[in-house]
Every structure is written in structure tokens, then in C-alpha cells.
Amino acid sequence: MTATLETRAPRRRRLGRLSESRNGLGFLFMLPAAVFLLFFLTYPLGLGVWLGFTDSKIGRPGVFIGLENYRWLFDDPVFWLTVFNTIFYTVFASIAKFALGLWLALLLNRHLPFKNFFRAVILLPWVVPTVLSAMAFWWIFDSQFSIISWSLMRLGVIDQPINFLGDPWNARWSVIAANIWRGIPFVAISLLAGLQTIPQSLNEAAAIDGATSWQRFTKVTLPLLTPIIAVVMTFSVLFTFTDFQLIYVLTRGGPVNATHLMATLSFQRAIPGGQLGEGAAIAVAMIPFLLAAILFSFFGLQRRRWQQGND
Amino acid sequence: MASVTMDGVRKSYGSHEVLHGIDIGIEEGEFVVLVGPSGCGKSTLLRMLAGLEHITAGRILIGGRVVNDLPPKDRDIAMVFQNYALYPHLTVAENMGFSLKLAGASRAAIADKVRPAAEILGLAHLLDRYPRMLSGGQRQRVAMGRAIVRDPQVFLFDEPLSNLDAKLRVTMRTEIKNLHQRLKTTTVYVTHDQIEAMTMADKIVVMHDGRVEQIGAPLELYDRPANLFVAGFIGSPAMSMIRGTLAADGQFLADDGSRLPVGDTGRAREGQSLIYGVRPEAMQLGGTVPLTVEVTEPTGAETYVVGRMGGTPITGVFRSRIDVRPGGTLDIAIDPAAVHLFDAEGGQRLTA
After folding, report:
1. Which region holds residue A44: left if phi is over 0, alpha if psi is between -120 and 50, else beta?
2. B132/A210 Cβ within 8 A
3. Residue B72 to chain A, least CA–CA distance (Å)
4. Which residues, by range, are in coiled-coil regions (chain B) (predicted)?
5. Would you call A310 helix, strand, or coil by DSSP?
6. CATH number of A211's domain
7. For chain B, which residues make up each domain, given as ranges?
8. Nearest by CB to A310, which of B72, B132, B146?
9. Do residue A48 and residue A75 come from a single domain?
């Protein structure tokens, strides 16, 4: 009797203390979200990493084999080709998406007639399901019925259809073009939102201070936009690096693996190929690249000195 | 320093005209305040002078040169914006020296200009800070510093004090006036606050609905408002206005039947429908005009009395302390020489 009383009292005191301390309460309130994240993010990620260290095949659990999968990939020219493809794809698509997206955002930030209509239209490529737009590009890039080839032949520029997806370099540029088309809206609309946070009076003040329109862009608009550019481009790079759907519908990685990205190769080896362990290892190999991109933006995103202080 | 002339200036947005032919002459070194209620077009006019808005018709001259088609940077003006428009990514020194840097001045030349301007404004110790780290008053000073550094022909101020608290506003008012007396640069200042206009201006331009109602020195506007709008706009508390006519004996016959004294009837004719205007301080205690007291507001030095005469609200200000309960009656006298008569139809001043 006395024993139970004695044990209960300190426990109640501990709970009371927990509910009074700021950190304790914070921890308590974070718990549901933490459990959720742990279950739906960490578990699959952890499982993927674990699979990468096993020789699992579909229908066979497999055993721990250490770094054997990675050693195998290290000597696999196809894997290195996909690493090159992925970087090539990400770099060129991201640069083009940034340049065109910024240009579009600057255009949309002006006083245009039907401004809202244009802003809505811009979003379309992003709203359409990827598979659907990929199918459309499949037709646009068709070796015989391509509208681009047809138009150019009609204009007399070329005399036979362009083999968009059949030639390795043509295929690389074609999938990049499709990715740019799909990714521009995200960049343009996000940067437009950023542009609208820049007060008009800053541009006017710069105009009075003697800045040309190019100087107003480089010395006022661009510096004030950098924090948003950093966020938008981080996301854009992450989306592009992990792209799967577009490639899978358009080329399935062909011709001769010229458009195989790490994501498509991972899927190819793991599911149709049945080598779960090896596929997982390829996916895990993407992590360092993604981490590098995130770290890059983390330092880019750090509040600059001019952003600090109270408003 | 330069003179500024506006000659029949008009502004339309599509078919909607917002400024209907503005003529203003500003002399070299003058401090001119454009004042009027919001939406009267004063800011638009200033922006047209700055080159930020297109001039639909008419001409604007700065220093005798037509600037209608010149871009802002070629007009040799500097502007202080309502929200200060400081570049957030530049330090105070960089903000102030921005125009010089654009003009290709050397680092030493920029420092030579920025330093004295910062000293005038008491910003010397803040030169390395960013705008976010400054208080409202300091930001305001940086914005003025940016204008001073350019050493322009004309300073333009667009409601520069409206984002500050009441106390700081009074301080900055004095500072801007001091600055003008020191630099003697022609200044055009826009505000909706008639007290700012009265205290700072050499010349006030009262605007209303895209027209100039009256141009004159502050006290001229106060003593001889050209029309009902100016009479009601300038002065705080506002002038009391009573409807009525001029009686045969030369006195004013209010609509409620009370008779009020008139000094000079001017162009007012007997029987004409009139507005009788009297400023709060033109009333004294102890007279024959009964005022029904509604509210008394003692401020220490003076007492404001808000009351009614017949149905008309009247505000008086008295030097002595008054102890009348709301609902009580106060007998007042009106100084006949300080009475303004206006035409009830067109609102024009009839007293000389």
C-alpha cells in the first residue's frame, strides 16, 4: 500500500514537470508527426538501404552480402553511363528551366492584358499528368509521324524525318526538351511569386537613381530574388535528378542505354530484372548526389546578412 | 536648384481623367507642399514630375527645360518614397551611394559624398547596417540621405512621414524643414496632413478631385480660403459652417433663425443663400450667441468646445477653462472681422 503510493507520487511529479517545461511539451506535441514520418519515410528508406546490402531477388529474401552490390556496380559500365546520363540530364534541363522560367516570370510580372489567363495557362504543362504529356511527346518525337520532322520537311529544311529517339544524342536532347517543357511552369510560377514580393517602389527608386533597366534587373531584382531562386532550383534539381516517368514512357532508357537515368536503371534491374538488391544499391547510390544538392542549397539558403534583423 | 513649372498638366487612365489641367509655378529654392484628401491626384502629380507616370497632356518644366519625355534619371531629381524604398540588400552607405556608383564614381568620391550627408542626418554610426536593422525614423533619414547625396535640382517627397508614429513625425517634420533651410533645394512635398502642410510649406497647393483649389502661403490659405473646400480642409479643428442668408441689416440670418454678426459682406447680396464660416479661435466667451454644449475637451492651455447652434455643429476653442456640463448653454461672441462668407451654390469666397 505504502509502496504503491510512493512510486505513484514521483511519476505524477515527473509528468507534471514534463507538461510544465517548454521543451518537454514541444517534444510531446511533435511525437505524432515524428511517428508518422518515422513510419512512412524512414522505414522505406531504411529498408531500401538494407536491401542494397543483400542479394535479395523477387520472391527470395536474400542474405547480407556487404558491399558486394556496390563493388559489382563499380565495375559496371552501364551503371557509370547512367550516372553520366543523369548528371547531363539534370544539368542541362535545370539550367534551361531556370533561364526560361525566369524569363517567363519576368514577362508575366509586367502589366499584360489577360494577365491572369496567361498565368493559368502557364501552369498547364505541370498540371497534366506526366504520363499523358510523355505520350504526347512520344508522338512529337515519333520517327515517322513527328510533327517537327513533318514541318521541317514541308519547309524544305530537311529531306527525311529526324530520328529523335533512335539516335543516342538525339534521344538525350529530346528527353531533356520534354523535361524542360514540363518543368518550366513550376520555376516560372514560383519565381513570379518571388518577383511580386519585391516592392515596385524599389524599381522606381533605382530608375530615379539612374539605373538602366538591365541595371535594375542585375542590381535590384536579381539580388532580392536569390533566396527564392535557391529554393526553387533545389527542388527543380531534385525533381530532375530523380525523374522516372518521362524516360520510362518515352524511351525506357534506350537507345543502347543512352537515356537511362539512375532511377530508371534501378527500377529496370529491380523489378523487371528481379535483382532487388542491385536495384536498391543503384537507388542508394543516388543519395550522395541528392545530399550534395541539398547541402548546396542549404548554404545558398542561409539567411544573408541583409535579411536579418526585425522588419 | 531649379524652378518647376506645371502648365495645363492632365492625366488620364484610359478614358478616365484624374488630373484636369494643373497649373503650378514653383520658384527656385521654394518648399511647396501639395496637400489634399486621398484620391485627389497629388501623388500622381508628383510621380509625373518624377517621370514615373506618363504625362497625358500639358507640360512640366524643371529649370526651364521641358521634361515631359525625359526618363526619371535624366530629370535631375531625387525622391523620398512613402515606404522609403531602401534597397534591403545594400548597407546604409551603399544605399546612399547607389546613384553615384551607377554613375561610375570612384569609391573615394562616393565616400566623400556619403560621409557629409550621413553626418548631417546623424547616420554616421549606422553606415554599415542594413535597412532591416534600422528603426522607422532611421530608415526615413537614410532615404533622405540617398536624396541629398545626389545633390539634385529638386527634392520630391511622397508622404514621407505617414509610416512614422505621431511623436517621430513631429521631430522629422522639423528635421526636413531644417534640411531645406540648410540646402535650399527646391522641394515638392506631398501629404494629406494639413498640419504638415501648414508647418513646413513656403507655399501650399490645395488639391481636390484632380483640380487645384488654391495656391498660397500657409497663413494666406488659413486667413482667406478661396472656397468652402479649402476653408474646411485647412485648420484643425475645422472651421464651423452655418447655412443661411444675408439679412437687410447686414447681419447673417441663420436657417435656424439666430442672427450672427458679419464684418465685411463683400460681394454677398441680401437674400443670397450663403455659408457663414467661423474658425474656432474667432469665438470668445460672454456674448449673445447661445451654444448648446455637447462635449468639452480641455487640453490644458485651451479648451475645445463642441456644441450646436440650432442644428449646426460648432467648434470653439477658448483660452480659459470652462466648466459647462454637456447639454448646458454657453454664451459666446463671434469676432465679426474674422467671419468668412461663401456662396452656398458654388462655394466661392464672397468676403474680401
Report:
1. alpha
2. no
3. 5
4. none
5. coil
6. 1.10.3720.10
7. 4-229, 237-343
8. B132
9. no
Cell of A67: 558491399
B82 chain-A contacts, CB cut-off 8 A: 201
Angle, helices A43-52 vs A276-301, to 10°: value is: 130
- Cβ–Cβ below 8 Å for A223 and B89: yes
Cα–Cα distance for residue pair B159/B31, rounded to 1 Å: 14
Q: Does residue A60 lie in a domain region?
A: no
For B4-229, CATH gives 3.40.50.300
| Residue A6 domain flag | no
Q: How far is A217 from chain B (nearest CA, A)?
A: 13
Residue-range definition of the domain harbouring residue A44: 12-52
- B292 has which bridge partners? B308, B329
DSSP code at position B349: B
3-state secondary structure at position B243 = strand
B258-268 per-residue burial string, b: 16 or more CB within 10 A, e: under 16: bebbbeebeeb
pTM over 0.95: no
Contact flag A309-B133 (C-beta cutoff 8 Å): yes
Cα separation, A89 vs B273, whole angstroms: 84
Say if the Cβ atoms of B132 and A309 lie within 8 Å: yes
CB B133 within 8 A of CB B123: no
The tens-digit pLDDT sequence of chain B (352 residues) is: 789 999 999 999 988 999 999 999 999 999 999 999 988 999 999 999 999 999 999 999 999 899 999 999 889 999 999 989 999 999 999 999 999 999 888 999 999 989 988 988 888 899 999 999 898 889 989 999 999 998 899 999 999 898 888 888 898 899 899 989 988 999 999 999 999 999 999 999 999 999 999 999 999 999 999 999 999 999 888 999 999 998 888 888 888 888 888 888 888 888 889 999 999 999 988 888 888 999 999 888 899 999 998 788 999 999 888 888 888 888 999 999 999 999 998 889 998 7
Domain B237-343 has CATH 3.40.50.1950: no
Which residues on A lie below 8 Å from B79 (Cβ)?
204-205, 208
Verify whether the Cβ–Cβ distance A309 to B103 is below 8 Å. Answer: no
In this structure, are A17 and A123 located in the same domain? Answer: no
The SS3 of residue B58 is strand
